[in-house]
Design a protein that fits this description.
The chain is mainly α. The chain is built from five helices and no strands. Helices cover 73% and strands 0% of the residues.
């Protein structure tokens, strides 16, 4: 039940990452279109003032939102040549140790990002260029990192229970997807 819930959150994570990528691509295309139109119509501004700033927020969101689903799908870089040479029991033990290290590292990162986001919210920090509250994009990145922590917890539980670590149904069917 817990692992199914984390898997559902992992799928949500992937969809949010895809939405960030789509939004980023749309923003960049709009920037190009506005620039082209400004060459034809002088009343059109030469750029979208917040495009670079919001584009960086969307890129950060895409990276962090895609991480948990990528871990569950087995898409992160691994040294499979080493893992293939280990016995099943040693491999399971190593996966548990690595998942625990993943929980520790990403847990610390999540804790630091939660504090950072809260400080931005509490102090009312805003962006210099757009005056947007900084806690909003920071919260999105923090949420993605928290989902990655949960996925590492699930991986640890799966490894310790002898369950499959990766869900091949979450992988893209081809390199075009």
């Amino acid at each position: 039940m817990l692992l199914d819930g984390i898997d559902r959150l992992g799928r949500l994570d992937g969809w949010l990452g895809a939405a960030c990528l789509f939004s980023l691509a749309s923003l960049m295309l709009a920037e190009v279109a506005v620039r082209a139109l400004s060459n034809i119509f002088p009343v059109v501004p030469a750029d979208i003032p917040v495009a670079w700033e919001y584009g960086s927020y969307l890129m950060a969101g895409a990276f962090t939102f895609g991480a948990a689903m990528t871990l569950r799908a087995g898409g992160h870089i691994r040294v499979t040549i080493v893992l293939a040479r280990l016995s099943a029991e040693t491999r399971r033990w190593l996966e548990m140790v690595l998942a625990a290290l993943g929980v520790a590292f990403t847990g610390f990162l999540a804790y630091a990002m939660i504090r950072f986001t809260w400080q931005s919210f509490d102090s009312g920090r805003t962006s210099i260029s757009s005056d947007s509250p900084l806690w909003i994009p920071q919260a999105l990145v923090t949420f993605g990192i928290c989902l990655l922590v949960l996925q590492f917890v699930a991986r640890f539980l799966q490894a310790s229970s002898g369950l499959p670590l990766e869900d091949l149904n979450m992988r893209a069917g081809s390199s075009a997807e």
